[in-house]
Design goal:
Length: 430
C-alpha cells in the first residue's frame, strides 16, 4: 500500500491552457519523473516539480502522442496522452485502477480493457470446454455458438470505438488486439506507427515470443525455434514499412540482450527483405543505419568475409597468413573478457600452431589498454580502437564484450564462439 494522499483539483480557474496534466500530491518526494514508452521499455523525458503546497502541473503540448509513465517514491502511473488535458485521482489502493476525472483517452482505455479481459476470460473457458466435450455431444455446438457470439461482440465493440472516435488513439490500440489471434496479429493490417510508443505492442510481441521459449532446449535449439516467430512478427507489419523497421529494431535489441546471435542476425536479414530503404527519408535512413546497423550485422554473419581492418601502417587483417585467425574484441574494464583471455593464454601452446590470435581492445586510452596488453603472449597481435579510429567494432556489429570471430585462411567468418570451450568445437583435430 502506498502511504500518501493524492488530491486532484477539478478546476484551475486561473489556467485556461489545454493539454495540461495537473493535480496535488502529498509525499516527501517533491519531483515526479516522466517516462515515455518505446514498446515496453521506458525512457526518461522530463520531470514535474511539486510546489510547497503539493500542487503539480505540467504542460504536455510539446509531448508526442503516446503512452507515458509518472513515477516517484509514491506513485507509478501509466497514461495515454493525445492532445488533451488530463486530471486524475489515485485512490492509493494498488489493487484498484487510477480514476481519471478528465481524459477521454484514458477512460476509454480502461473501459476497453475491462471489456476485453472479461470477454477473453470467458472465451478461454469456452475453449477449454470445447476441448473437453466431443464434437458429437449436444453441448459442443452450443459452446461453439457462444464462442462465436463473444467474438462478434468483441469485434463490434472495437468497431464502434473506431466509428465514434476515429481520431483518438485508444481505438488504434483496440484494433491491434482485435486482429490478435491465438498466434499473432493478422498479416497485411496497416497499424498506426505511434503504437511503438505504447507498452501494448511490445507486450503482445513478448507474449508471442514466450510461446516459443522452451526450457528444455539447448541454446542452438532455442535459437532455431525463435526463427519462425520472427517471420510471423515481421510479416504482420509489412504493410507499414516504418513500423516494420522499428519492430525489427525492437526484436534485434531483445535478442542481442540475450546473446542469441543467430536470431538477431536473421531478424536483420528478414527486415532488409521486407523494407524498401529507398522509400525512407534521410532521417529514417540514418535511424535505420544507426539503430538497426543492418549492413554491419549482415557483414559480420557466419559465412561472410570479415572486414579487412588495419593492423598497422603497413599491414591489414588479410595480410596475416594463418590457417585460422581468432579476432577477440575485449576491454580492460570487462570481467568476462579477462576470463576468456586467461583461457586463451593458458592454452596458447595448444592453439598457436593452428590459430593466429588478434586482440582488438575497445578501451578509450592507451594506458588502460597497455596495462593489460603488455602481459599477453608474444605470439598475439594486439590493437586498440583508441589508436585505430576505423570504428571496427561497429563494422563487426560488436555490442558486448568479449566477442569472438573465427576466420579461415580466406578470411571468411566460420564461427562466433562464445567461450574457449566453444572455440575448441570449431578448431577440430590438429
Amino acid at each position: 500500500m502506498r502511504g500518501f494522499v493524492l488530491i486532484v483539483l477539478l478546476s484551475f480557474s486561473h489556467i485556461y491552457a489545454q493539454n495540461l496534466l495537473k493535480g496535488k500530491i502529498t509525499c516527501s518526494d517533491k519531483m515526479i519523473n516522466i517516462n515515455k514508452y518505446y514498446f515496453n521499455d521506458k525512457t526518461h523525458v522530463g520531470t514535474i516539480k511539486i510546489d510547497s503546497s503539493g500542487f503539480f502541473i505540467k504542460d504536455l503540448s510539446k509531448y508526442d502522442i503516446g503512452e507515458y509513465n509518472l513515477k516517484n517514491e509514491a506513485i507509478d502511473i501509466d497514461f495515454i496522452y493525445n492532445n488533451e488535458s488530463i486530471i486524475f485521482i489515485d485512490n492509493c489502493d494498488e489493487n484498484k485502477p487510477v480514476i481519471f476525472k478528465k481524459s477521454i483517452e484514458n477512460n476509454m482505455l480502461n473501459s476497453f480493457f475491462d471489456f476485453y479481459y472479461t470477454n477473453n476470460t470467458s472465451y478461454g473457458l469456452l475453449n477449454q470446454l470445447l476441448n473437453f466435450y466431443p464434437k458429437s455431444d449436444k453441448f459442443y455446438e452450443k459452446i461453439k455458438d457462444r464462442k462465436n457470439e463473444l467474438n462478434t461482440l468483441n469485434n463490434s465493440y472495437i468497431d464502434s470505438l473506431k466509428r465514434s472516435y476515429p481520431n483518438n488513439f485508444v481505438p488504434k490500440i483496440a484494433d491491434l488486439y482485435k486482429h490478435s489471434s491465438t498466434g499473432f496479429v493478422n498479416e497485411n493490417i496497416k497499424f498506426d506507427f505511434n503504437l511503438i510508443h505504447t507498452r501494448f505492442l511490445g507486450e503482445l510481441i513478448i507474449s508471442y515470443l514466450n510461446t516459443y521459449n522452451k526450457k528444455d532446449y539447448n541454446r542452438e535449439q532455442q535459437q532455431n525455434a525463435f526463427l519462425p516467430a520472427v517471420d510471423t512478427i515481421l510479416n504482420a507489419f509489412k504493410k507499414n514499412e516504418l513500423l516494420n523497421l522499428y519492430v525489427a529494431d525492437f526484436l534485434i535489441d531483445k535478442f542481442r540482450y540475450y546473446d542469441l546471435d543467430v536470431v538477431y542476425e536473421y531478424a536483420a536479414l528478414k527486415a532488409k527483405q521486407l523494407i524498401n530503404f529507398s522509400k525512407l527519408n534521410l532521417k529514417e535512413k540514418d535511424i535505420a543505419q544507426k539503430v538497426f546497423n543492418i549492413n554491419n550485422i549482415v557483414s559480420a554473419m557466419v559465412g561472410n568475409k570479415a572486414y579487412n581492418f588495419k593492423i598497422d601502417d603497413n599491414t591489414k587483417l588479410y595480410d596475416i597468413k594463418a590457417e585460422q585467425k581468432l579476432v577477440v574484441f575485449w576491454a580492460s574494464w570487462c570481467p568476462h573478457c579477462e576470463e576468456t583471455l586467461n583461457d586463451l593464454e593458458e592454452n596458447i601452446s595448444e592453439i598457436a600452431p593452428k590459430i593466429k590470435v588478434i586482440t582488438y581492445s575497445l578501451d578509450y586510452t592507451n594506458k588502460d589498454w597497455k596495462n593489460k596488453e603488455e602481459n599477453f603472449p608474444k605470439e598475439w597481435i594486439n590493437i586498440c580502437e583508441c589508436n585505430n579510429k576505423e570504428n571496427v567494432p561497429d563494422k563487426y556489429a560488436v555490442y558486448a564484450t568479449p566477442t569472438l570471430f573465427l576466420l579461415d585462411q580466406d578470411n571468411t567468418i566460420i564461427a562466433k564462439p562464445n567461450s574457449y570451450i566453444n572455440l575448441l568445437d570449431f578448431i577440430g583435430d590438429e
